[in-house]
Model the fold of this input.
Amino acid sequence: MSNFEVRRAERRDLEILMEIERTQFPEPWTQGMMLDELDRTDSRRYTVCIDGEQVVGYLGVMFTDEGMHINTIGVVPGNERRGIAKTLMDECWADLVVRGVTKASLEVAVSNAPAIALYYAYGFAPVGIRKNYYQATGEDALVLVAEIPSTMAAG
Done:
């Protein structure tokens, strides 16, 4: 496994973020939506995973009154199962502990077994289903919630 670096996502990363969106998701965000997310540093936190000089993945979260919500996570095609998503989640979890955030939530396609397994490793558990959540596919979303311990839980 490579030694990845994680840093804040910046506007200069927009092209690769959009490429990941288009290749990973049936309903990719628009460029305008992504720029808005990157610019909202008061309530959003977007990070990228770097391998050498290349962005190989990203994670975007939103802070709410209830805690943190994972908006999006994606990996450059061909880089799956290299530990990129885990690296991003580990770094995020460490930041949440420092911030004192105690709860996280997200929605994930019910058919996305690799993502669900990753989230379960971080203590996420199902609390519901959002029927037909993904308009392009009509697929349901599994709603997951996790309590964030004062130390990182995933190994």
Remarks:
- The radius of gyration is 15 Å.
